[in-house]
Design a protein that fits this description.
By secondary structure, this protein is of the alpha/beta class.
C-alpha cells in the first residue's frame, strides 16, 4: 500500500494552514522530539511509515500520533488529520471539538545528543508562531511534553523560556516582512495537501477515540523491542518480511518475473491496476499461452504429468502478504513438479479486524479477558466488521462474474485444456484447487464457473480451515463432489483448538468463531470450518462421514488438527486458523495428495511468521467507508423506536405505495467531425447497472439522440413522474462551449456550456440554459440525478470552462471545440435558436443559483478540465459504475462524490469528477426516494478538502 504521507516545505505548511477547513478549535501547541529515530537513524519516508506502523499496530492507536513531523532538513511530513485530537500527553489531548496542535521533531535533543539547530530549528519555531497567529493564541500556549509528563521531551537541551522568546520575536515580525524566501505555492499543491491532511483513518471511522485521550508517545521510555520496531533496517529481515516493509513498486525484477508467470492479482473481483503488483488480461494470456505451454512441453519431455494447482489465499492477508506467501511457496511447488497459479485478491481483513478489536477492547479495559469480553467485542466489531466481511465475500463472487478476473482465467483455462484434449484424456494434464479460509469462498464461485465453461474435472480440492458458510458450501461445492471434483479434503481444527486460538490477542477464539458469532448476517451462522457446525448439519455430516453409523464418501475426507502423525497424506499440526498455509504438515499432506506420492521436497520452515492481526491496514478506504455507512444504516433500520416517539410522517410514494425508478441513458459515438468510441457502450452499461438496482431504463442512442429528442424525452420523464419517484438521466458524448445566448448574461465568463446532440452540426446544441429550464419542471418529491460523462459538465446550473488539455495517445477527449473549428458553431446556433418557435426559445432562467437546483448533477470533470475515454469506455463511467456495483444503502451524494474523487486519484491526465446540487441535497441518500422526514447526515471531515 502506498504511503499516504507527504513532504512539504514551510511555505507550503503556512499556505495550507491558512486554507485548512478547521472544525476543531486549536487551544495550544505541543512540542515533542522523537528520541528514536534520532537524526542519524532518520531514513526519510521510511521513518514516518515506521512511526505510523508502530503507533497503529503496536500501540493500537487510530493513526500516527502527531499532526506533523519536522525532519532534520527542515521539511515537514504530514501526519494525523488536523481536525482530530493527537496522542500527545495523557489527559491533555483534547477531543474533536478542541485541543492542541502537536508536532514531533525527528531527533534526540537531550543534552549531549543531537543539536537543535539549522533548518529544523527554524521550521519548528515558525510552525509554533504561525499556528499561534492563525488561532490568535498567546505565546505561552506552547507546551513542552516535559511540562505535561515526567519525560525530558522535547529534549533537555532545549530551554522553554528561550524558545518562547524566539517565537514571540517571529510573531512580531510576521506582518512586517517576508520570512519565507521560498517559491509561491500553487493552488493545485494546496488542494493536494489539504486532501492528505483531511485523511481520516479506518480505525477513526470505525470507532470513537475516547481511549486515546490518555495516550502519549513513549519516547525516551521505549523498550528495546520498541526501539527495534522504529529503527531496524529492512536488510536484516527475511525476504517475506522485507517485502512487507517495502513500498509499492519495490519488488525486484526477478520477483516480478516469477510472479508474472504464476500470480493473478485481483481487486474487488477485477484485475488489479495499482498497488505492489498489477495484472492485466494480457498477463493472463501470457501465463497460459507462454508459460503453461512451456511447462506442459517440459512435463511431456520428462515423462510426468503437468499438475496445475489453482490456489486462493485466505481473507486475513493483505496484498503484500499474499505476494510474499506466493514468492515463498512457488519455488517449493515447482521443485515438486507442480505448477501453481495463485489468486492474490487483496483482502487485508486481518489488519482491519485487528484494529477494530483492539479499539473495542480498549473501551472495555478493566473487565478482564473472559467470555463476557468476547461478547462485548462481538457486539462492538460486528456491525462494521460484518459489512467488511460481506464486501470481501462479494469480491470473491465478483471475480467469477461476466467481467471478473477469475472468470477470465476460467475461460483461458478452458481454452488451454481444449487445445490439449489428448493430455487431458491420458492424465498428462491434471487440475487441482486449494483454498485457505476465505479462499474456500473464492473457489465456491470459481470452480462452478470453470466447470460450466467446459473445464475438465478437478482431481482434488483442498479446503484449509474453510470460512465459507455451511449453506453456501452445500449450494456451490457439495454437489460437485464426484461431478467435477474427484476428491475433496477438508483440513480444520478440533473445536478446543478453535477456542484456544485468538484474534488480535484480545478476542479469545478463532476467526471462525468471530464469523459464527458476529460477522455473518445472523448470530451463530454455521461455518464449514467449525467442528460443531460440521457435525450439526445432517447433509454435510453424512457427506463427510461424521454422522454415527455413516462412512465418509470415498471422495471425501476430514483431517483434524492436531493429528498424531507429524507427516504423511493426512497430517496437520496448525494450532491457529491463519496458520494452515504455513503449517508444513498440512502443506506437505496437500502436496502428497496432488502428486499422489510420498517422496517430496519438504515444505520450507524458515519463514519469520507475521502477525496478520497487526499488519498495516490495506483495505481500500472506500470499502471501509462504505461498510461504516452500511453498518449505520442497518443500525437505524433495526433500531426499536422510542416509546413516546411521534408516529412517522407519511412518505410520498408512487403506484402501489412503492417509488418508481426510471432512467434515460443517452450515448453518442457517431459524431461526423470527431467520432468517439465508448459513449454508446457507456449508456448501455449505465442502463444495465441501473436495471440491477431495479430501474426501468430507456436508451437514446446515436442518430436518435437529437436535441429535440433529448429535451422531449427528459421532459416526458419528468412530467409523468409523481412524488416518491426516483429518476436518472445519463449522458455520454461530446461537450462544448458557446457564446452566452442569454439576454441577461447569466454566465460569469459570457459562455454557455452545452451537450452535443447527434445533430449539433446544424447548431442544435443542448445548452445549460435548456437543461435548467427543463429541470425546473421536476415535480415536488421527485428525486432526479444527472450523470454527465463529457467535457464542461461541471454544473447543469452554472457551467464555466477553459480550453481542453492535450490528449495522450491512447485516450480521447469528449470535447467539441466550437471556437477552434472551421465551422462557426456560434453563428449556426444563433440561427438555429432564432428559427425555433416562440415557446421553444426558452429564456435564460433567473434561478440559476445552487439553492434553487432541483437536480443532483454528477459530472466527469472540473469545468477547466477534459473528460476522457479509454479502451472503449469513459473514465468517469468506468469508476462510477464500479462504485455503484457495491452495496450502497445509506450512501449520501457527498460520500459518493468523495469516493469518485479517490477513484481518480491516480488517473492521468488530471480529471476531477464534480458534484453540483442544492446544499441541502448533498447529504441526502444516493438514488433513493425523497422522504418528508429524511435525516441530514453530518458531513465527514474528509469531504471538506475533496471539494
Amino acid at each position: 500500500m502506498a504511503s499516504r504521507f507527504k513532504q512539504l516545505t514551510l511555505a507550503e505548511f503556512v499556505a495550507v494552514l491558512d486554507q485548512f477547513p478547521f472544525t476543531r478549535r486549536v487551544t495550544g501547541v505541543h512540542m515533542h522530539h522523537t528520541w528514536r529515530p534520532n537524526r542519524a537513524q532518520y531514513a526519510g519516508r521510511a521513518s514516518i511509515d515506521a512511526m505510523w506502523q508502530y503507533h497503529t499496530q503496536h500501540n493500537g492507536w487510530s493513526d500516527i500520533a502527531q499532526h506533523i513531523s519536522i525532519a532534520p532538513d527542515g521539511t515537514i511530513w504530514t501526519g494525523r488529520n488536523w481536525n482530530l485530537a493527537p496522542a500527545s500527553s495523557s489527559g491533555h489531548n483534547g477531543n474533536r471539538l478542541a485541543g492542541p496542535f502537536m508536532f514531533e521533531m525527528i531527533g534526540d535533543f537531550d543534552k549531549g545528543r543531537d543539536p537543535f539547530d539549522g533548518a529544523q530549528r527554524r521550521t519548528a519555531l515558525h510552525v509554533v508562531a504561525h499556528v499561534q497567529r492563525h488561532f490568535k493564541l498567546a505565546t505561552k500556549s506552547l507546551h513542552f511534553h516535559s511540562q505535561l509528563s515526567g519525560k525530558t521531551c522535547p529534549g533537555s537541551s532545549i530551554g522553554y523560556e528561550a524558545t518562547v522568546q524566539e517565537v514571540r520575536h517571529i510573531k512580531q515580525n510576521l506582518g512586517s516582512r517576508a520570512l519565507l524566501a521560498e517559491p509561491a505555492v500553487s493552488e493545485e499543491r494546496v488542494v493536494e495537501l489539504l486532501r492528505t491532511l483531511s485523511y481520516i483513518s479506518i480505525a477513526s471511522r470505525a470507532r470513537g477515540l475516547e481511549a486515546e485521550a490518555l495516550a502519549e508517545p513513549a519516547e525516551e521510555g521505549m523498550s528495546r523491542q520498541q526501539l527495534l520496531l522504529l529503527t531496524e533496517p529492512v536488510p536484516g529481515k527475511t525476504a517475506a518480511r522485507a517485502l512487507q516493509s517495502r513500498g509499492p513498486g519495490e519488488l525486484t525484477a526477478a520477483q516480478r518475473q516469477l510472479l508474472r508467470a504464476h500470480v493473478v492479482n485481483l481487486d474487488q473481483g477485477r484485475f488489479s491496476t495499482d498497488g505492489t503488483f498489477t495484472t492485466a488480461a494480457s498477463d493472463v494470456d501470457a501465463l497460459f499461452d507462454k508459460h503453461l505451454e512451456q511447462a506442459l512441453r517440459a512435463a511431456r519431455k520428462a515423462g510426468r504429468p503437468l499438475q496445475l494447482v489453482l490456489y486462493a489465499h485466505g481473507g486475513l492477508v493483505s496484498e503484500k502478504s499474499g505476494l510474499a506467501g506466493a514468492l515463498r511457496a512457488i519455488p517449493w511447488w515447482k521443485a515438486n513438479h507442480v505448477y501453481p497459479l495463485y489468486f492474490v485478491w487483496e483482502t487485508g481483513l486481518g489488519g482491519t479486524l485487528g484494529a477494530l478489536i483492539r479499539g473495542s477492547r480498549a473501551r472495555e479495559s478493566g473487565r478482564g479477558i473472559t467470555d463476557l469480553s468476547d461478547q462485548l467485542i462481538e457486539r462492538a466489531v460486528g456491525p462494521l466488521g460484518g459489512q467488511i466481511w460481506k464486501n470481501m465475500k462479494d469480491s470473491a463472487e465478483w471475480a467469477s462474474e461476466a467481467d471478473g478476473g477469475g472468470r477470465y482465467v476460467a475461460r483461458k483455462l478452458q481454452q488451454f485444456c481444449a487445445a490439449h484434449p489428448a493430455e487431458v484424456a491420458d492424465g498428462t494434464l491434471r487440475l487441482h484447487a486449494v483454498g485457505h479460509s476465505a479462499g474456500s469462498i473464492f473457489h465456491a464461485h470459481f470452480l462452478p464457473t470453470a466447470l460450466q465453461l467446459g473445464v475438465p474435472s478437478f482431481r482434488t480440492l483442498h479446503l484449509l480451515a474453510p470460512a465459507i458458510r455451511v449453506d453456501a458450501f452445500k449450494q456451490h461445492l457439495a454437489g460437485l463432489v464426484g461431478h467435477g471434483v474427484d476428491q475433496l479434503t477438508l483440513f480444520t481444527m478440533r473445536d478446543q483448538l478453535e477456542r484456544d486460538d485468538t484474534c488480535s490477542l484480545f478476542y479469545r477464539k478463532s476467526l471462525l468463531y468471530l464469523l459464527y458469532n458476529a460477522l455473518e448476517s445472523g448470530r451463530e451462522t454455521p461455518i464449514l470450518g467449525l467442528e460443531t457446525c460440521l457435525r450439526a448439519d445432517a447433509d454435510v455430516s453424512r457427506l463427510l462421514g461424521l454422522s454415527t453409523g455413516h462412512q465418509a464418501a470415498p471422495a471425501t475426507e476430514v483431517i483434524w488438527s492436531n493429528t498424531t502423525e507429524a507427516s504423511g497424506r493426512s497430517s496437520s499440526t496448525s494450532a491457529t486458523h491463519g496458520g494452515f498455509d504455513e503449517d508444513a504438515a498440512t502443506m506437505e499432506s496437500v502436496l502428497r495428495r496432488v502428486v499422489d506420492q510420498t517422496d517430496i521436497v519438504p515444505f520450507p520452515r524458515t519463514r519469520e511468521l507475521v502477525d496478520l492481526w497487526h499488519e498495516p491496514i490495506e483495505l481500500p478506504e472506500e470499502v471501509v467507508m462504505l461498510a461504516q455507512l452500511q453498518a449505520e444504516f442497518m443500525a437505524k433500520t433495526t433500531a426499536k423506536p422510542a416509546k413516546k416517539a411521534a408516529p412517522p410522517r407519511p412518505q410520498p410514494a408512487s403506484t402501489n405505495g412503492h417509488p418508481r425508478q426510471r432512467a434515460l441513458c443517452i450515448g453518442i459515438n457517431d459524431y461526423p467531425a470527431a467520432p468517439l468510441q465508448g459513449c454508446v457502450a457507456d449508456a448501455r452499461a449505465w442502463a444495465d447497472a441501473l436495471k440491477h438496482r431495479g430501474f426501468a431504463t430507456e436508451l437514446l442512442l446515436e442518430d436518435e439522440a437529437t436535441r429535440q429528442n433529448i429535451l422531449d424525452r427528459i421532459s416526458s420523464l419528468l412530467t409523468t413522474s409523481r412524488a416518491g419517484d426516483v429518476l436518472v438521466v445519463q449522458f455520454s458524448g461530446h461537450g462544448t462551449q458557446l457564446q452566452d445566448a442569454g439576454r441577461g448574461g447569466d454566465e460569469d465568463d459570457r459562455r454557455d456550456e452545452a451537450l452535443c446532440p447527434h445533430d449539433y452540426a446544424r447548431g442544435a446544441f443542448v445548452l445549460d440554459d435548456d437543461l435548467r429550464t427543463v429541470f425546473r419542471r421536476v415535480p415536488a418529491g421527485v428525486s432526479v440525478t444527472f450523470f454527465a460523462d463529457c467535457c464542461h459538465s461541471g454544473s447543469v446550473a452554472r457551467l464555466f470552462g477553459a480550453p481542453p488539455a492535450p490528449v495522450v495517445v491512447d485516450q480521447r477527449a469528449r470535447f467539441m471545440n466550437a471556437r477552434a473549428s472551421d465551422t462557426d458553431f456560434n453563428t449556426l446556433h444563433r440561427a438555429f435558436r432564432a428559427s425555433l418557435p416562440a415557446n421553444g426559445n426558452h429564456p435564460a432562467p433567473a434561478d440559476a443559483g445552487r439553492a434553487a437546483m432541483r437536480v443532483v448533477n454528477f459530472s466527469a470533470c472540473l469545468p477547466e478540465e477534459v473528460a476522457y475515454e479509454t479502451n472503449g469506455s469513459g473514465a468517469f463511467t468506468t469508476r462510477a459504475l464500479r462504485l455503484l456495483e457495491k452495496p450502497s444503502a445509506g450512501l449520501t451524494h457527498r460520500q459518493f462524490q468523495d469516493q469518485l474523487r479517490r477513484a481518480f486519484s491516480r488517473h492521468s491526465p488530471v480529471q476531477h469528477p464534480t458534484l453540483d446540487c442544492a446544499p441541502t441535497a448533498e447529504e441526502l441518500p444516493l438514488l433513493q426516494a425523497l422522504t418528508a422526514t429524511a435525516p441530514r447526515r453530518p458531513r465527514r471531515q474528509a469531504s471538506a478538502a475533496a471539494r
